[in-house]
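Why do we care about 3D structure at all? Because function follows from shape, and shape follows, mostly, from sequence. That is the central idea of this module. The next example makes it concrete: a single protein chain, its amino acid sequence, and then its structure expressed as C-alpha coordinates.
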Amino acid sequence: MRVKTGNVRRKRHKKILKMAKGFYSGRRKHFRKAKEQVERSLVYAYRDRKQRKRDFRKLWIMRINAAARLNDITYSRFMHGLKLAGIELDRKILADFAMNEPNEFAKLVEVSKEALAKAS
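And the structure:
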Protein backbone atom coordinates (compact mmCIF):
# COMPACT_ATOMS: atom_id res chain seq x y z
CA MET A 1 0.00 0.00 0.00
CA ARG A 2 1.32 3.43 -0.93
CA VAL A 3 1.33 6.17 1.72
CA LYS A 4 1.16 9.79 0.62
CA THR A 5 2.93 12.11 3.08
CA GLY A 6 2.03 15.48 1.59
CA ASN A 7 0.31 17.18 4.55
CA VAL A 8 2.35 15.45 7.24
CA ARG A 9 5.66 16.24 5.59
CA ARG A 10 4.69 19.85 4.94
CA LYS A 11 3.67 20.35 8.59
CA ARG A 12 6.90 18.77 9.82
CA HIS A 13 9.01 20.90 7.48
CA LYS A 14 7.14 24.08 8.37
CA LYS A 15 7.62 23.39 12.08
CA ILE A 16 11.39 23.01 11.65
CA LEU A 17 11.69 26.04 9.36
CA LYS A 18 9.71 28.13 11.82
CA MET A 19 12.14 27.15 14.58
CA ALA A 20 15.04 28.08 12.26
CA LYS A 21 13.76 31.65 11.84
CA GLY A 22 16.58 34.12 12.26
CA PHE A 23 19.34 31.70 11.34
CA TYR A 24 21.90 32.75 8.72
CA SER A 25 21.60 31.95 5.01
CA GLY A 26 20.66 28.37 4.04
CA ARG A 27 20.27 27.37 7.66
CA ARG A 28 16.89 29.05 7.66
CA LYS A 29 15.81 28.28 4.07
CA HIS A 30 16.84 24.70 3.30
CA PHE A 31 15.10 22.01 5.29
CA ARG A 32 18.05 19.67 5.78
CA LYS A 33 20.45 22.40 6.91
CA ALA A 34 17.74 23.96 9.08
CA LYS A 35 16.97 20.63 10.72
CA GLU A 36 20.64 20.02 11.54
CA GLN A 37 21.02 23.50 12.99
CA VAL A 38 17.78 23.33 15.01
CA GLU A 39 18.84 20.00 16.55
CA ARG A 40 22.20 21.50 17.45
CA SER A 41 20.54 24.63 18.84
CA LEU A 42 18.24 22.57 21.05
CA VAL A 43 21.28 20.77 22.46
CA TYR A 44 22.91 24.12 23.26
CA ALA A 45 19.70 25.37 24.85
CA TYR A 46 19.43 22.30 27.09
CA ARG A 47 23.10 22.51 28.11
CA ASP A 48 22.99 26.24 28.77
CA ARG A 49 19.87 26.06 30.92
CA LYS A 50 22.02 24.06 33.32
CA GLN A 51 25.07 26.28 32.83
CA ARG A 52 23.14 29.49 33.54
CA LYS A 53 22.67 28.35 37.15
CA ARG A 54 26.44 27.83 37.52
CA ASP A 55 27.23 31.19 35.94
CA PHE A 56 24.92 33.10 38.26
CA ARG A 57 26.30 31.35 41.32
CA LYS A 58 29.85 32.28 40.23
CA LEU A 59 28.77 35.90 39.73
CA TRP A 60 27.12 36.06 43.17
CA ILE A 61 30.22 34.60 44.84
CA MET A 62 32.47 37.16 43.10
CA ARG A 63 30.25 40.04 44.24
CA ILE A 64 30.10 38.78 47.83
CA ASN A 65 33.86 38.24 47.88
CA ALA A 66 34.56 41.76 46.57
CA ALA A 67 32.26 43.35 49.16
CA ALA A 68 33.62 41.17 51.95
CA ARG A 69 37.20 42.14 51.15
CA LEU A 70 36.21 45.81 51.32
CA ASN A 71 35.20 44.97 54.90
CA ASP A 72 38.52 43.20 55.64
CA ILE A 73 37.38 39.58 55.51
CA THR A 74 37.60 36.84 52.90
CA TYR A 75 34.59 35.20 51.28
CA SER A 76 35.11 31.80 52.90
CA ARG A 77 35.58 33.22 56.40
CA PHE A 78 32.55 35.49 55.93
CA MET A 79 30.32 32.57 54.86
CA HIS A 80 31.64 30.39 57.69
CA GLY A 81 30.92 33.16 60.20
CA LEU A 82 27.36 33.53 58.90
CA LYS A 83 26.85 29.79 59.29
CA LEU A 84 28.16 29.90 62.86
CA ALA A 85 25.89 32.86 63.60
CA GLY A 86 22.88 30.91 62.30
CA ILE A 87 22.12 33.33 59.46
CA GLU A 88 20.75 31.44 56.47
CA LEU A 89 20.72 33.89 53.58
CA ASP A 90 21.43 32.50 50.13
CA ARG A 91 24.14 33.87 47.87
CA LYS A 92 21.68 35.64 45.59
CA ILE A 93 20.37 37.77 48.47
CA LEU A 94 23.86 38.36 49.87
CA ALA A 95 25.11 39.51 46.46
CA ASP A 96 22.15 41.89 46.19
CA PHE A 97 22.98 43.31 49.63
CA ALA A 98 26.63 43.67 48.62
CA MET A 99 25.68 45.67 45.52
CA ASN A 100 22.71 47.75 46.68
CA GLU A 101 22.89 47.88 50.49
CA PRO A 102 26.57 48.18 51.50
CA ASN A 103 25.69 49.37 55.02
CA GLU A 104 23.46 46.34 55.66
CA PHE A 105 26.18 44.09 54.23
CA ALA A 106 28.72 45.67 56.61
CA LYS A 107 26.43 44.78 59.54
CA LEU A 108 26.33 41.17 58.32
CA VAL A 109 30.13 41.20 58.14
CA GLU A 110 30.31 42.38 61.76
CA VAL A 111 27.93 39.60 62.85
CA SER A 112 30.07 37.10 60.96
CA LYS A 113 33.28 38.37 62.55
CA GLU A 114 31.75 38.17 66.04
CA ALA A 115 30.64 34.57 65.45
CA LEU A 116 34.13 33.67 64.23
CA ALA A 117 35.70 35.29 67.32
CA LYS A 118 33.41 33.33 69.65
CA ALA A 119 34.15 30.06 67.87
CA SER A 120 37.93 30.37 68.15
